[in-house]
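quick one if you have a minute, typing this from the bus. theres a chain ive been looking at and ive put its sequence and its fold in token form underneath. please have a look and point out which stretches look like helix strand or loop to you. anything you notice is useful, everything is just below.

***
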Amino acid sequence: MQTKTTTEFTEESMNIVIVGHVDHGKSTVIGRLLADTGSLPEGKLEAVRRNCERNAKPFEYAFLLDALKQEQAQGITIDSSRVFFKSARRRYIIIDAPGHIEFLKNMITGAARAEAALLVIDAKEGIQENSRRHGFLLSLLGIRKIVVLVNKMDLVDYRQSVFESIREEFNLFLAPLNIHPADYIPVSGFHGDNIARQSPNLDWFKGSSVLSALDSFEKAPPKTEQPLRLPVQDVYKFTNYGDDRRIIAGTIASGRMRVGEKVIFYPSGKSTTIKSFEGFNVPQATSYQTGNPVGFTMQDQIFVQRGEIATQEGAPPPKVAQRIRVSLFWLGKEPFTPKKEYLFKLGTAKVKATLEKVIRHIDSSNLSSENESAEVGRHHVAECILKLGKAIAFDLSEDNEITSRFALVDEYEIRGGGIILEDLTDAQAWVRDSAIHRNIKWETSFISMETRMERNNQQSALVVISGPHGVDKKQVAKALEAHLFSSGKQVYYLGIGSIIHGVDADLGVKDPEHKDLEHIRRLAEIAHIMLDAGMILIITMTDISTEDLEIIKTVINPERIEVINIGKNTESHPDFDLIVPNDNPVESSVSLIKSMMQDHGILFRF
């Protein structure tokens, strides 16, 4: 039987977004384009005309698109609508994005799916605030194929001077954004001038019609030739009827995948080889490429999570960082400030994020900027530094726009979004680089961590018991170990002194600060090995600091770390999973910790 590979489209297609200020005639231009190219369903144009006559409304080509009753009543486009038509060269999907300032989020969503744009400006009203703002947003989204349509030329008697004035003014605005429109075209959407063909009313204009301008756009090179980027959507584990497959699922953002290829996941650095592609009721495939949803099994059973990005061994890897420099557009009613925590979403990754610094605050309607602003206001753009809750994998916008675009969410609402410009160093970078290198070189066993945990009837975990001097943390830790061991659990208590005088015996004393940090890193690496063996490791630390905990979380999956504090923490205050009073009896403290471990799924209740 012949092996099936990915099917490719033989007919070229292109997504075009049309944007502009409200009432500048975007929908009319599209409606006229559909009518003049014979792309409307049979009888559609006549039906809309009759409907307008019945309701005593003047006919408008925009009604061919604005199908929602709310939109027709208000005369504005609320959500992005899509229309399809075909020229002699290719198939088109035109995305009609809303122009009203209140619906900028919808405009951005529509534009993000396009590779080229038409920007409409009313010849009579001229360049408006949203005309400039939409131009800025197109640059932010990385769209460089742009044609500007100066519409409603009939309302200014088709005067060339009006057209030239708008072209000159708008070029001055777009130049600092590194946007150079492929063309400016004078049109009248209502009368059809220069829409599908050149018009005698504009005989002074020797350029293209809108249709020929669209056909002149060259498609971007296929992303199949770019390095593989597969954001992990989920990992599925099967157990019934002897089926022990673990299937990693996601959609290929760029590049291609083949059975037998070695892939590396970032930010963890874990690697495996693609064993097979899996799907429900589909022919068996040996390769997939950009845009395809895939599920695949691994030869080596490694633990990866949603939000990681897979790429081929030897290909340029994505960036990995916890601090990033970004260009963002803010949509929230409340300003973007350092005082609030948001959810940062990029691809399938979701992490907490805070604003560390506003480098430059830009008014997108006029490009005026204010350095060192304290916050970002609504509908404004800013260059900022963001601090993420943990390191993620991504690309810079110049390398791959799909894996560089992000959104900021608060209370289930998108408040802002943008692109990543630069990865910045942070205090854990040296530890993270070491952990990634370790995982790439890691020798996997035939027995996976998950298999060991199933045999032990527990989840592997690092339990850190912290507290100030004078609190008997060791007694609680050893009592917890004894209690879990007597219950049949695979558990081990590791005293700090055992590490200092053993594994850490070679650490010098010339650089005390580095010695302390390296001590924490080595402790975390030992814990990583114990957790990979499916065990519960218990350690004690005096007043664990946020910095120490961040190093441990960089080396170990943070979801497998439980931090308990006994008494009052006198140092910086990390987020504790449990706080136990200082005067609590040992047996009671053990019981509280055990209950927490049961609640967190580390232990099953016994």
Notes: Residues 1-10, 67-80, 99-104 have pLDDT under 50 and may be disordered.
